[in-house]
């Protein structure tokens, strides 16, 4: 039987939704490994819409589910309908939508709240001992919900290659263990069944980001 994996999206676009290359890498690797992806997103308004040419917010209003459907080629479901019992694993690609639409990390950091629907889904997979794959900024969700967990967002020393490294310190302050890693590597927290990789937390060539995401997917399927 093919493994059934929920993929949780947060919109469409790295600055206000899901990072498209990360989401695509997840879907491609699931397909390559013979798994069945089931894509979900919350039916909520985006925090805001960013003009990706100018890098500036616009007055537009968009819906997270509707925008996520662009990545899923329309084959998507409302997160409210997700039934953890029929699924083997969960994967959450990164992108600022995780920090803006699935949580308030973008504005509140470690003091953030997580959307009730998103929190319920993550806790349900965790309670069922089903693996959760997280990349880029999405490991902050685990850091907030599962104190003592082990995750990686890459490195903890900020530099040109690692511009978001301060995230690691905020996660440590939440009580989790951050493990430094390279962009093409993953970290597996066997106790919590979490698989994390840094992806675009690193200024790296896109093929190395893809390699790390592919490893994350393979580890999730191995644990499922």
UniProtKB/TrEMBL annotation:
It comes from the Eukaryota. InterPro entries: Class_I_gatase-like (IPR029062). This is GAL3A protein. It comes from Elachura formosa (spotted wren-babbler). The gene is Gatd3a_1.
């Amino acid at each position: 039987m093919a493994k059934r994996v929920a993929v949780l999206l947060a919109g469409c676009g790295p600055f206000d939704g899901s990072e498209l290359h990360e989401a695509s890498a997840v879907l491609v690797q699931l397909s390559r490994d013979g798994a069945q992806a089931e894509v979900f997103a919350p039916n909520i308004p985006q925090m805001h819409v960013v003009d990706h040419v100018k890098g500036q917010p616009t007055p537009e209003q968009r819906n997270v589910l509707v925008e996520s459907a662009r990545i899923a080629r329309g084959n998507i479901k409302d997160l409210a309908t997700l039934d953890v019992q029929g699924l083997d694993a969960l994967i959450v690609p990164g992108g600022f939508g995780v920090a803006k639409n699935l949580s308030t990390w973008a504005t509140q950091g470690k003091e953030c709240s997580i959307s009730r629907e998103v929190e319920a889904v993550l806790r349900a997979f965790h309670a069922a001992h089903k693996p959760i794959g997280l990349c880029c900024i999405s490991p902050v969700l685990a850091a907030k919900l599962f104190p003592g967990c082990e995750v990686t967002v890459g490195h903890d020393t900020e530099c040109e290659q690692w511009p978001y490294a301060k995230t690691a310190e905020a996660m440590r302050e939440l009580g989790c263990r951050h493990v430094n890693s390279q962009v093409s590597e993953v970290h597996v927290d066997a106790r919590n069944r979490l698989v994390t990789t840094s992806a675009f937390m690193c200024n790296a060539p896109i093929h190395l980001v893809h390699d790390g995401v592919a490893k994350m997917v393979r580890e999730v399927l191995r644990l499922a």
